[in-house]
Amino acid sequence: MTENSPTNPPPAAHRRRPRYPGKNPRRFEDKYKEHAPARFPETIAKVIASGKTPAGSHRPVMVAEVLDALTPKPRDVVVDCTLGYGGHAQALLQRIQPGGQLIGLDSDPIELPRTEARLRALGFDGSAFRAHRGNFAGLAQRLAGLGLGGADAIFADLGVSSMQIDDPARGFAMKLDGPLDMRMNPHRGQPASLFLQSLSARALADLLAGNSDEPNARLIADALAGKSLTTTTALAAAVRATLPRKAEDELERTVRRVFQAVRIAVNDEFGALEMLLRHLPACLRPGGRVAFLTFHSGEDRRVKKSFEAGLRAGDYAEISPTVTRPSPEECGANPRATSAKLRWARKAA
Ligand SMILES: C[S@@+](CC[C@H](N)C(=O)[O-])C[C@H]1O[C@@H](n2cnc3c(N)ncnc32)[C@H](O)[C@@H]1O
User: How far is it, in rounded angstroms, from Cα 273 to Cα 137?
Assistant: First the structure.
């Protein structure tokens, strides 16, 4: 056998990591330490202490309050409809052992396998935790397909994860240059660029007003309709150009609302939420509980109305009397928690 035969290949050439400009990495893909939290815990602690979210991760919001609302206990069957990075799932899994099972759903085919691997590495095997790629709109069918009559607790943490927002390649972020995509599942549907181009000015104005209560919907829609905007920064610049006399902070809020409205439409977020809300009571076991974290009024309004209607109809025995907000300490430590609202409901025993 020669030294470099196929069964004894030469050692792989050591590839140097490309250098980033400056002292600290700025670009998402250059933050190699943040992408490997297990190897660089001190870097992660430093980033979190500065109030930021390490690249490629997500900091779960209001975990203690979510656990209080769902009261998970050993042997429970729990569904996390929005698995994300798995922060809430991990806390729920710890509460339902021994004997419990958590079904984790997410529509994102890129992040789901990473989260599944992370939770497996924490010791949650196939009998405790199963990950499924899919839309929570189909929860009822999913549970039936798994042979589960219902769950003891169902949780949804709406919107996008930090992994999705912070990666410019996913096209969600108004401040990071990337393709204008915004799909949680990039293998399905149209990217935001094509979707936007297909809309009439009227349809775009309705979308901006309906999804984000945008006060300048008409003006922005007239300026943007039919335009080819292929990058996130091109969309942000086009929106800014429509309101030249606005102050910087108002301009930033406007761009944020436009991005949010388009993202909601591209992913049919309200359609999926309404479908989930409609089928929830049938997906819960008697006495089962559901909790939602919402991040803007369009989401919270839908959850609140559905819970109130469910209480009137007798589908729920009790609903949260008021909305719960994150503590000032949590908002200070994690500014992304600031707009969160928690609501829960309990099905009759
Ligand atoms: C805010 S993150 C969840 C973070 C998670 N609770 C954690 O602790 O890491 C929201 C997640 O929900 C997913 N998602 C949003 N809408 C969805 C839908 N209709 N069906 C399934 N997953 C959805 C997104 O892909 C994203 O990963």
Answer: 7
If you search the block for the tokens 């979308």, which residue do you land on?
A: 207
- Beta carbons within 8 Å of 13's beta carbon, 6+ residues apart: none
The one-letter code for the residue type at 3 is E
The closest-lying atom of ligand 1 relative to the alpha carbon of residue 268 is 19
Phi, psi of 133, deg, nearest 5: -80, 125
Separation of alpha carbons 208 and 339, rounded Å: 20
Q: What is the pTM of this model?
A: 0.90
DSSP single-letter state for residue 1: -
Residue-range domains of the chain with CATH: 63-162+269-347 (3.40.50.150), 185-266 (1.10.150)
Q: What residues contact residue 149 under an 8 Å CB cut-off, 6+ apart? A: 143, 285
Tally of residues, the chain: 349
Residue nearest to atom 22 of ligand 1 (CA): 106
Q: pLDDT tens digits, residue range 119-154? A: 999 999 999 999 999 999 999 999 999 999 899 999
Mutate to test the pocket of ligand 1, among 161, 170, 341 (most ligand atoms within 8 A of CB): 161
CA 28 vs CA 110, 118, 140, 168, 218: distances in Å: 16, 20, 37, 7, 35
Quick one: which of 28, 209, 186, 179 has its CA closest to 111?
A: 186
Mean pLDDT split into 10-residue runs, the chain, 349 residues? 43 65 75 76 76 81 98 98 98 98 98 97 97 98 95 98 94 94 97 97 98 97 95 97 93 97 98 98 98 97 98 98 97 95 96
Q: Is the beta carbon of 61 within 6 A of some atom in ligand 1? A: no
Specify the residue with its C-alpha closest to ligand 1, atom 12. 82
Is the CB–ligand 1 distance for residue 299 below 6 Å? Answer: no
Q: Which atom of ligand 1 is nearest to the CA of 108?
A: 25
